[in-house]
Design goal:
This is Transcriptional regulator, AbiEi antitoxin, Type IV TA system. The chain is an alpha+beta fold and 307 residues long. Helices cover 43% and strands 20% of the residues. The chain folds into three domains: 45 residues, no CATH class; 128 residues, no CATH class; 107 residues, VSR Endonuclease (Endonuclease, Chain A, 3-Layer(aba) Sandwich), CATH 3.40.960.
Length: 307
């Protein structure tokens, strides 16, 4: 029914030209069928309400801003959304753009304008949208956040590509405020980290000086199946970050949540049958800083030294 452009955005003028009345558009917005992403531009409301739906809406708002007057260059969290670079607690409330000039930055209710030069190598076009390059985006996010956890999360998302990792290293070569922390995060980044939750887990482990653990380690189970564990240490301890995304990704068709829990419990028992101690933690443990103490208790029991 709704005419959409190549980005999936509905333009008011196009809709009116297609014979859709102002009242119909207004009713659809009021009923929650359409979401406003910019003045005179809308997208169909996602069916589900979760982080994925929020990501879709935020990306649409960013694209709407980037295809508006002047074609601004999306940067920081907005460029990350277009690239598909997952961040730790991304700012979905405002669109981030960079001026391309050394001055002119400002903060508005719905937009943050960052001052900063934009060499041609730092700008790419994705589907008609101008954004900072993946390397520049990760560096900008890391510097702006000023936290080791966010910097590590951003760099974990890019370092699997050697060329992009080297581009980021070049961008970090110049002295800047907060550069030491960001360089450390870049040096310790690991492309095998599969989610912001796993990256945050690693950041807390590193800051607590826990032993360096291997990532995504495969174990053959007694049943003949395979288990890939988020964290592994010396084949005596494995750690699992239980993010909801992991469960949704692993959910089989017509499977209920209880079945997933049972399947995970059987998998955990099989890991223990291999002589592995299994630790698990969730977002609340990361937010409450209880993950590291929990892991330390297990390492103490195993006689593993750390610190």
């Amino acid at each position: 029914m709704w005419p959409v452009d190549r980005f999936g955005i509905i333009h008011r003028d196009v809709a009116l030209d297609a014979g859709i009345s102002e009242k119909t558009i207004a009713r659809a917005v009021h009923a929650g069928q359409l979401c406003v992403v910019a003045r005179g531009r809308y997208v169909p409301t996602p069916v589900t309400h979760n982080d994925d739906a929020d990501d879709v809406l935020y990306r649409a708002r960013c694209v709407a801003a980037a295809t508006g007057p002047g074609r601004p260059v999306l940067s920081h969290d907005s460029a990350a959304a277009v690239h598909g670079l997952r961040l730790l607690g991304p700012d979905r409330g405002r669109v981030h753009v960079t001026t391309g000039r050394e001055s002119g930055g400002s903060r508005r209710s719905r937009r943050i304008i960052h001052a900063g030069l934009l060499p041609s190598d730092d700008v790419v076009e994705i589907g008609g949208v101008l954004v900072t390059s993946l390397a520049r985006t990760a560096v900008d996010v890391a510097l702006a956040a000023g936290t080791f956890a966010q910097a590590l999360t951003a760099f974990d998302g890019i370092v699997a590509d050697h060329e992009v990792r080297e581009q980021a290293a070049r961008l970090l070569s110049a002295p800047r405020h907060g550069i030491a922390l960001v360089r450390r995060a870049h040096a310790l980044a690991d492309g095998r980290s599969e989610s912001p939750g796993e990256s945050w887990s690693r950041a807390q482990m590193i800051e607590a000086r826990l032993p360096v653990m291997d990532l995504q380690v495969e174990y053959r189970l007694g049943s003949g199946g395979r288990a890939f564990c988020d964290f592994s240490l010396d084949d005596v301890f494995v750690g699992e970050f239980d993010g909801l995304v992991k469960y949704r990704r692993g959910m089989r068709r017509d499977e209920d949540p209880e079945s997933i829990v049972i399947r995970e419990k059987i998998r955990e028992d099989e890991l223990r049958d291999l002589g592995l101690d299994v630790g698990r933690w969730i977002w609340a443990d990361l937010r409450g800083r209880t993950m590291v103490p929990k892991v330390c208790v297990r390492l103490d029991r195993l006689g593993i030294r750390y610190g």
